[in-house]
Structure formats: structure tokens, C-alpha cells
Amino acid sequence: MSARSGFDPQAGSSPTAWSPETRRVDFGRRVLVLRRRRVAVRFDWRSVIVCSVLALAVACMAVLALMTGSYHLSPGQVVSALTGGTTGLVHDIVVEWRLPRVAAALVFGAALGVSGALFQSTMRNPLADPYIIGFSQGSYTGALIVILLVNGTYWQLAGGALIGGTATAVAVYLLAYQRGVQGFRLIVVGIGISSMLASLNTWLILKADLDQAMAAAAWGAGSLNGVSSAQVVFGGACIAVLLLLAAMSSRPMRQLELGDDGAAAQGVRVSATRLGLIVLGVALTATVTAASGPIAFISLVAPQIARRLTRSAGITLAPAALVGALLCLTADYLAQHVAPTPLPVGIITVMLGGGYLGWLLITEARRHL
Question: How confident is the model over 242-246, as a mean pLDDT?
Fold first, then answer.
């Protein structure tokens, strides 16, 4: 007997409580079904367990990051400072100095994980990544113009990154459009646009003043060193809204994985839905880029690791978000402590992601032989 989601005339009639039950669906996968009145929500048991383990790993990594530094703290001191039980120097170290960076790594990593999941699911290609197909480069170009030519504020920087990423996405979409958009064609066009924008970014930096050029180059590596509490709050609020929209779009996203004809047969407006999902992914990437610069490869790696952990048929958003948060937080921890001076987190993610990209290319090539 399979579990059902949505309207169920046989569901219980309790007006206040969700009634849990476990069922086995086809292919031997167990699901958790929560019922309330005539609504039933289904969760895959393996995904629930994987997300719980990932959330625990994220919490442990966050506590470790808050503990470690030139002034070492114990787990008890960290928890006490977070719950308001400690004041003075320990509170200032945990809440004022270290917490904004840890929160930024968590929120931005989750945003990049979901962004990659949106692109890979929409294009049905594991190589679909905002960094590879140029959207991150477009956001970087927009922010770079604001930094070098306008010398604007953070809010202007965020607007420039969003405009640059959106303009790049529109250009790639239009150039790749030919009786619809195929994932492989969009990726090839995006790689070409990305190379052109990388050259433009290099030219802009070379033409700038030395101080501005050094600051822009360091920021372009992707760094959480200068992230402030205000940036985390503003970026986190924007990302929360975008993640909510992404969650609401998960059903048509999964329908698109069946192919354009299959999705259209189920009533999905294929072109409009795909464009909306791409805009959501670009907005998530641009928000992160505006605050920290382009952090590469997390959006490529996180969805695929999440898919292998959950063994799901398609890309799922919640595991991808948790894996992205864990990867970004771990990479930033390594960036702070593996070298005598703190490194940009983007350097660590490029090192890890480059090896993964090579493995992925070899695997995909063997699969098509």
C-alpha cells in the first residue's frame, strides 16, 4: 500500500494534531505520513534520517567554529553565551565576533546548495552550476562595477550583483533558446559567457587603482572575513524569502525532471516554470555574492552529495541546503585555521570542488560510453 499526499477522504478528522504513520511504498522505500483532517504529508524515511544527521553535524561544526580561535572556549561556555547565561568577554567573543561569521557560512552555504539544486533539477544535468555557467561571474561583474566605478555601499553592491546576475541569466537564456531550452545547450552557452565575463572582470581590475584592485581581487576570491551582522541579517532575510519560494516550487521542479512533455501533460507551464526556477537560483547566488563574493563549487557539489546520501530519484532541496551549509562552514573553518593567516573560503572550496568536478566529468564520460 502506497502513501498518498494531498486530499485524502480516508484521513482522520482530528482538527489539531498531526497523526503519524509509517508505510512501505513501492521499491521497498519507507515513508512517514503525517495526517491532519483531510490533508496528508509524506516524508521519505531515509531523507528524514539523513536530514537529521546532517543537522546534527551542522550544529556540532558550528559549536566547534565558535569554540576555536586565538581565545579557546569550551562547549559549555559557547552554549551559555548563546543562551544568554554568560556576559562579559566570553559573550562578546561568541555573539559579537564569531557568531556573525558562522551564521553567514550556514545561511550562504544553504542558499548555494539550494541554488545548485534548482539548476541541476531544472536542466537535468549534474554539471549545471551557477559558477560554471556564468551566473556567478555575472553577479561578480555587477558588484565589481559598483566597487570600482561607483565605490558604493553594501546595498548598492547587492543591487549591482543582482542586476549583473539577472542580466547574465537573461542573456544566456536567450542565446540558448531554440524551440525551447535544452540543459546541455544552456550549459555550453553559459560556459562561453562565463569566460567572456571573467576576461572583463580581469580587465576592470587591471584598470582600477591599486588599492581598489587589491580589495576587489581579495573579495572576488569569496571571503567571509569582512561579513558584518547587518549583512547577515539582510542577506538572511532575503535568502529566507527565496528559500520559501523555492520550497513552494518544489512540486513543479520535480515534474520538470520527467521531461518537458511529461511535465506539460501534468499541466505545468514548462517555459515559464523553468524561467522562474532559474530566476530563483540566480537571486540566491547574487545575494551570497553581494555579501561574500563568489564562493565556487558548493552549488555544484552539495546537491549531488545530498542525492547520493538520500538515494532519491531526483534532486531534493532540504538535504542540498544542509549539505551546502555543512560544506561552507567546514571550508571556512579550514580557511581560518590551516594557514598562519586566514584565507578566503573560496580558495578552500575551489580546491575541494576542483577534485570533485574532475571525478564527476570522468564518471559522466564513462556513463555515456
Answer: 93
